[in-house]
Recover the amino acids of this structure.
């Protein structure tokens, strides 16, 4: 407990108005905890840590942590993160986005950030719904789910963040849940220390907007669902009946240099050419 | 040889677009992100070639204009002088990000080379239809600075000015060009770096723990540290208090909104840039900007030869509208002509300032062709 208090004092802002904006039972606070523990474990100085967030519940994380924080426009967190990382590659840049942010309005930026392999870690907090606007279906809402804009069941298919990032060319793709907080810590730390574009999807329940409309009796039940249905990749692969189950863990790890490294190499080549001319 | 090493002026035969790029490099731009669009693409191409040779220069081609605007906002927050260039459709896409930059007081330079028509319109023809969009395009109440240029030399000068004003007032500055100005090739003298005045943003001098990101200051423009320089603060598009944290307290909201207006309003006289030609004794005035100002210059001379006491007020600052210069001339002229390549966008501002003082006539041309000197001459002589 003492350690937790120390981390709170060290990494959360003293001058920010608390309590947190999140509802009881929300998983975003756990992601916030995981984030703080990961930065602490990696020993990244607060001055060198940049957190760019989008709009929505997840975006509100930015105001609480004592890093360099940018609360960007809806869906555009990765574009600002790209500008910051290319301007100062020394910084550790983390883009925190929700599912609506990263995959609906900002889907284009996500695939291009992955293709570009920019040295930014994307943390996608997936709660399957637009929480802040009051519970509308998102591009990750599972088919058949009830939301305010799919009152008769979601008819559209949902995105698989991990598969999309893999196909788009990301260096690393990871999935964790807020139930498996320790696992999430590990995945985040791996993602933040590796070169190029790394994406971590954190499944997080939204009881207020998603759970209540979809036969979950309490937030606890939603966490139980995560415990029972999100399985380590190895276990998941061995399953015969995969319906309703999701794999988590490390999906992909490539070691290609990030855009900022390739950019620096290009400039070094130019300088060499100029010097020898 | 890198631009920064020159000690002498050089002569060059440049497109307006190329002059914009030269101006940006002279002003200290080290970051460009863009998306190709006619007729602004040459700016991007020159930056792609030149920036990698500049110290810390970064050039990025983004996936769309929204991303371009986002990347330069990020770069500017990280301490760079950053720019993008686009044209009508791309400029529309950027509006939300421009509003964000106004709210977060992030210095940026956005060049919009205007083409003809609405929507896809006339991609390779000139127009001046984005004037009011440049002022009011992004939602919400916020001030902005909009400049224009009418020839290749001015393209360079006004780009330098755009960077200087962006840094000085912590605001996005929009440089409106038109296809003709952007694609005219002229010989100009490129000044050497020590010759032009370059303004850099005010950095905080207090220790980081004392720093208040949006504190009321005498000038109304708070100092702005780069991300990663030891000053940790929160940047948000939400209405924020002086510490940068979201607020909806009426007193804090009022103070924040009024300050971003005040920082421009107070220095209104510094921001008005106009060119006056033969206006001392004029009783007939032409108010023009962009390529039309060039036609007007010739028309005014021809009118003088024909015995009409004509003068030209060429606007380089479009917003905040240079009303003191306009007002003074409205009082001394009996006829004012506002020729524009749109259905009347700056003429609205002139009429607003006029309030019945004198007669305002408009001359609008929207067929994708330039307003010729003879057209203007016919109206004033």
């Amino acid at each position: 407990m003492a350690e937790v208090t120390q981390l709170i004092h060290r990494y959360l802002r003293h001058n920010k108005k608390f309590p947190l904006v999140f509802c009881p039972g929300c998983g975003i606070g756990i992601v916030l905890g995981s984030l703080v523990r990961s930065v602490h474990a990696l020993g990244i100085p607060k001055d060198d840590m940049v957190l760019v967030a989008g709009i929505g519940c997840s975006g509100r994380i930015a105001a609480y942590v004592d890093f360099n924080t940018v609360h960007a426009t809806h869906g555009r967190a990765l574009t600002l993160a790209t500008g910051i990382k290319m301007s100062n590659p020394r910084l550790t840049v983390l883009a925190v986005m929700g599912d609506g942010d990263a995959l609906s309005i900002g889907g284009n930026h996500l695939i291009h950030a992955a293709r570009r392999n920019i040295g930014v870690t994307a943390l996608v907090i997936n709660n399957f719904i637009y929480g802040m606007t009051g519970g509308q279906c998102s591009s990750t809402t599972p088919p058949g789910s009830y939301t305010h804009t799919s009152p008769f069941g979601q008819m559209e298919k949902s995105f698989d963040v991990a598969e999309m990032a893999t196909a788009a060319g990301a260096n690393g793709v990871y999935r964790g849940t807020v139930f498996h907080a320790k696992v999430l810590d590990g995945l985040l730390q791996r993602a933040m220390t590796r070169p190029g574009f790394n994406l971590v999807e954190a499944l997080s329940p939204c009881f207020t907007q998603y759970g209540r409309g979809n036969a979950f009796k309490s937030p606890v039940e939603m966490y139980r669902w995560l415990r029972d249905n999100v399985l380590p990749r190895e276990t998941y692969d061995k399953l015969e009946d995969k319906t309703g189950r999701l794999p988590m863990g490390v999906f992909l790890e490539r070691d290609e240099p990030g855009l900022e490294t390739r950019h620096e190499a290009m400039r070094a080549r130019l300088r060499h050419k100029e010097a020898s001319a | 040889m890198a631009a920064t090493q020159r000690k002498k002026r050089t002569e060059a035969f440049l497109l307006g677009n190329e002059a914009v790029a030269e101006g940006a490099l002279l002003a200290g731009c080290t970051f460009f992100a863009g998306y190709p669009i006619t007729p602004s693409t040459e700016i991007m191409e020159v930056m792609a070639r030149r920036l990698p040779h500049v110290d810390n220069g970064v050039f990025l081609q983004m996936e769309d204009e929204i991303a371009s605007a986002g990347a330069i906002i990020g770069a500017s927050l990280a301490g760079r002088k950053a720019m993008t260039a686009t044209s009508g459709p791309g400029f529309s896409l950027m509006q939300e990000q421009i509003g964000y930059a106004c709210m977060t007081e992030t210095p940026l330079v956005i060049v919009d080379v205007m083409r003809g028509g609405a929507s896809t319109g006339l991609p390779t023809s000139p127009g001046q239809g984005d004037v009011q969009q440049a002022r009011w395009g992004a939602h919400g109440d916020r001030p902005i600075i909009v400049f224009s240029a009418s020839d290749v030399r001015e393209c360079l000068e006004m780009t330098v000015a755009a960077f200087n004003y962006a840094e000085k007032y912590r605001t996005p500055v929009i440089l409106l060009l038109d296809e003709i100005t952007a694609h005219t090739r002229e010989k100009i003298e490129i000044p050497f770096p020590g010759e032009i005045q370059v303004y850099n943003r005010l950095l905080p001098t207090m220790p980081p723990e004392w720093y208040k990101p949006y504190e009321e200051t005498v000038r109304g423009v708070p100092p702005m540290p780069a991300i990663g320089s030891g000053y940790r603060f929160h940047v948000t598009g939400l209405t924020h208090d002086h510490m940068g944290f979201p607020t909806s307290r009426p007193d804090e909201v009022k103070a924040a909104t009024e300050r971003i207006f005040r920082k421009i309003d107070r220095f209104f006289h510094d921001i008005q840039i106009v060119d006056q030609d033969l206006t001392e004794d004029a009783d007939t005035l032409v108010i023009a900007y962009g390529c039309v100002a060039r036609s007007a210059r010739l028309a005014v001379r021809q009118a003088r030869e024909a015995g009409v006491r004509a003068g030209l007020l060429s606007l380089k600052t479009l917003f905040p509208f240079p009303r003191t210069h306009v007002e003074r001339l409205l009082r001394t002229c009996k006829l004012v002509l506002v020729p524009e390549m749109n259905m009347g966008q700056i003429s609205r501002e002139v009429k607003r300032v006029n309030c019945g003082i004198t007669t305002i006539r408009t001359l609008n041309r929207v067929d994708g062709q330039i307003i010729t000197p003879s057209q203007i001459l016919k109206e004033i002589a």
Remarks:
- Chain A has one domain: 2-276.
